[in-house]
Amino acid sequence: MAAPEEPGQAAFARRIDPAREPGLSPEQRRLMAQVEFAQRQRVLQRRLRNRNVLLALGIGAVTLGIYGYTFYSVSQERFLDDLEQEAEAARARARARAEGAAS
């Protein structure tokens, strides 16, 4: 860690370039590259997981919305009741004609 330059400033880690650092062996450089790669992968996985969760919530919300709207619209449809009433009236007329023809 680098020493703070001014009083009241916190110390921070100094970023190094492994290719320019004279005291590092090739094995140490390779290990540093592996660690950096693993950290990037971890960050990428976390970011993708968050996106996937948001996408799943969005798809679920749309699905529930369509499902709810379907139930709402079907509950307001009265055309089947009207068809049933027309069919009952037609049956009654057919019975009346059959009774009239039989007498």
From TrEMBL:
Membrane-spanning intervals of the chain: 52-72
Q: Which UniProt keywords apply?
A: Membrane, Mitochondrion, Mitochondrion inner membrane, Transmembrane, Transmembrane helix
Q: Tell me which GO cellular component terms the UniProt record holds.
A: mitochondrial inner membrane
- Kindly provide the name given to this protein in its UniProt entry: Cytochrome c oxidase assembly factor 3
Question: For the Cytochrome c oxidase assembly factor 3 mitochondrial coiled-coil domain, which residue ranges apply?
Answer: 41-86
| Family to which the UniProt record says this protein belongs | Belongs to the COA3 family.
Q: Which organism is it from?
A: Zosterops borbonicus
Subunit field text: Component of 250-400 kDa complexes called cytochrome oxidase assembly intermediates or COA complexes.
Q: What is the lineage of its organism?
A: Eukaryota, Metazoa, Chordata, Craniata, Vertebrata
Asked if Cytoplasm is a keyword of the record, the answer is no
Q: Where is this region: Disordered?
A: 1-25
GO terms of biological process kind = mitochondrial respiratory chain complex IV assembly
Q: List the InterPro entries.
A: Coa3 (IPR041752), Coa3_CC (IPR018628)
- Enumerate the subcellular locations listed in this protein's record, separating them with semicolons: Mitochondrion membrane
Asked whether the UniProt record includes Transmembrane among its keywords, one would answer yes
Membrane topology label? Single-pass membrane protein
Record's function text: Core component of the MITRAC (mitochondrial translation regulation assembly intermediate of cytochrome c oxidase complex) complex, that regulates cytochrome c oxidase assembly. MITRAC complexes regulate both translation of mitochondrial encoded components and assembly of nuclear-encoded components imported in mitochondrion. Required for efficient translation of MT-CO1 and mitochondrial respiratory chain complex IV assembly.
